[in-house]
Task: inverse folding
């Protein structure tokens, strides 16, 4: 039995040079998205008003972020 | 390659968030309603005027909750995929599925479990408005420290692995992680702003739902992304096992 397919080679890492730009730009946008769900118009606010806070209110409480 | 993994991570996050929404709506919303009822009772008893409703409860508990969970799910799924893209083939010799599952477990412990042990979720009516600044700072400080401790623990396990083998290296790194977390949890100031008349079992139910939501999110992300990433990274292995 030739079972070479059952011994997969060690996984090949993704080159750092390819990963870095994605990590920086996508990472930044994704962290910003989490900020709007978790903290905007709570302890700190970029916008005036309470609409974002009130709209995601239940999700913020149930995800365990300090809401108000 | 990275773009394709990122997309798969965000899709896994969205799938996880849909399931988490079902759970949160069924088991979390009754607890939120209980807390808001209590809050309104107290305000009425104190003769305070009713607060204007910017967003209706019906919207908050459905579209609002879904938006919050979907955005959060897609975001953590995407970040998870980026961390995976670094860890795959570097941290262990494991395949895509196993790497994804282990990474999700590490994320659940460091992102959800550890911060929630010290600063558990609070329903509406718990927590005073004056301390939201300090409570938010403490929460995010603990979150960052917890993630950093996990990264260091994984780095320690990697270093020890060659000499002592994966099993012993894992135990040593795990104990080191627990020791660091124990010290940090002990050192950070406690927050306790639960009103005396808030039913203990309702508070416990609320906090259990929070842990449950995170457990659903990370389990589904870990398993779904593992399968999606394997299809992209290891098409040969898929054939071999089929």
Result:
């Amino acid at each position: 039995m030739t079972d070479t397919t059952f011994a997969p080679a060690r996984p090949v890492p993704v080159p750092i040079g390819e990963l870095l730009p994605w990590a920086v730009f996508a990472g930044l946008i994704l962290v910003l998205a989490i900020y709007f769900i978790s903290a905007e118009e709570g302890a700190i606010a970029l916008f005036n008003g309470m609409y974002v806070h009130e709209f995601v209110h239940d999700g913020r409480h149930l995800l365990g972020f300090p809401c108000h | 390659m990275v773009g394709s993994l990122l997309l798969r991570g965000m899709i896994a996050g969205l799938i996880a968030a849909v399931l988490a929404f079902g759970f949160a709506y069924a088991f979390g919303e009754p607890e939120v309603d209980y807390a808001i009822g209590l809050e309104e009772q107290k305000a009425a008893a104190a003769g305070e005027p009713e607060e204007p409703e910017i967003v209706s409860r019906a919207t908050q508990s459905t579209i609002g909750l879904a938006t919050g969970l979907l955005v959060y799910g897609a975001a953590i799924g995407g970040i998870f995929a980026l961390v995976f893209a670094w860890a795959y083939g570097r941290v262990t010799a494991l395949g895509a599925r196993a790497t994804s599952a282990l990474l999700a477990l590490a994320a659940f412990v460091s992102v959800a479990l550890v911060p929630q042990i010290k600063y558990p979720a609070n329903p509406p009516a718990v927590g005073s408005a004056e301390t939201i600044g300090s409570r938010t700072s403490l929460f995010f400080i603990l979150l960052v420290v917890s993630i950093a401790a996990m990264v260091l623990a994984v780095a320690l396990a990697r270093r020890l692995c060659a000499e002592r083998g994966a099993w012993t290296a894992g135990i040593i790194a795990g104990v080191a992680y627990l020791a660091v977390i124990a010290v940090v949890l002990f050192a950070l100031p406690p927050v306790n702003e639960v009103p005396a008349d808030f039913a203990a079992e309702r508070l416990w139910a609320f906090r259990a739902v929070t842990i449950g939501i995170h457990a659903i999110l990370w389990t589904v992300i870990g398993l779904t992304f593992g399968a999606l990433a394997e299809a992209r990274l290891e098409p040969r292995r898929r054939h071999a096992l089929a």
User: Anything to note?
Assistant: The first helix of chain A runs from residue 16 to 38. The two ends of chain A are 65 Å apart (CA to CA). Helices of chain A lie at 16-38, 51-55, 57-63.
